[in-house]
Amino acid sequence: xxxxxxxxxxxxxxxxxxxxxxxxxxxxxxxxxxxxxxxxxxxxxxxxxxxxxxxxxxxxxxxxxxxxxxxxxxxxxxxxxxxxxxxxxxxxxxxxxxxxxxx
Amino acid sequence: xxxxxxxxxxxxxxxxxxxxxxxxxxxxxxxxxxxxxxxxxxxxxxxxxxxxxxxxxxxxxxxxxxxxxxxxxxxxxxxxxxxxxxxxxxxxxxxxxxxxxxxxxxxxxxxxxxxxxxxxxxxxxxxxxxxxxxxxxxxxxxxxxxxxxxxxxxxxxxxxxxxxxxxxxxxxxxxxxxxx
Lengths: 103, 180
Prior knowledge:
The complex is a heterodimer of chains A (about 100) and B (about 180). Chain A is α+β, with helices and mostly antiparallel strands and about 100 residues long.
């Protein structure tokens, strides 16, 4: 049933610097969670992505990418990456161990 | 230097002329920054000579087609005359140069005092990060292409995963109630 989703979440937390991942639906309810991340974050993550998507509504017409902005929040040596794509919102927690090479 | 002096004198004379009418109506009162430059300009306007305009319209009455038009035109002339201020015809009290500079000093000093007493609400710091102690640290943080790429792939895969979710029901989805 949700094995595919579980696999995606397991894959993401094995990637470097990634400590946790979460998926939320349109209502902000948690669809799946893996790693060091509170499932209650789903609603907040969805709300943040919703608000940010409303910042540039005109751009969404010209470039559809603007409809799904990626939000990066920094807190200490951690960062939280949020993105929304239509129905679902993804939240990834990353730990800043070594400076990643920006490519 | 002489040239500068002469220019200054000219400016001072022009300015004093602008200030000329200030003291006409207020000779007994100490002039301040609120004293009008032109005292009661309506009284000095050529509107008082409206009899002239009446005579003018009478002179040319034969060329005007109707009486109504004539009165309308004369009213127009009167209104224009009322709104006119004849500065040249007014009494001119020239301001001494010394007095002029004294006033500049007094007014600027007064303005300075008021400016210091005024509460300036617009000088408060604006910005979302004003209460964050080390906001510079966070502003300089880059957004890694790695993060966005990872997120993009994660969302794409997750979307496929979510779409694959379906319920395999082993029992009957609709349960009939036992209605007697």
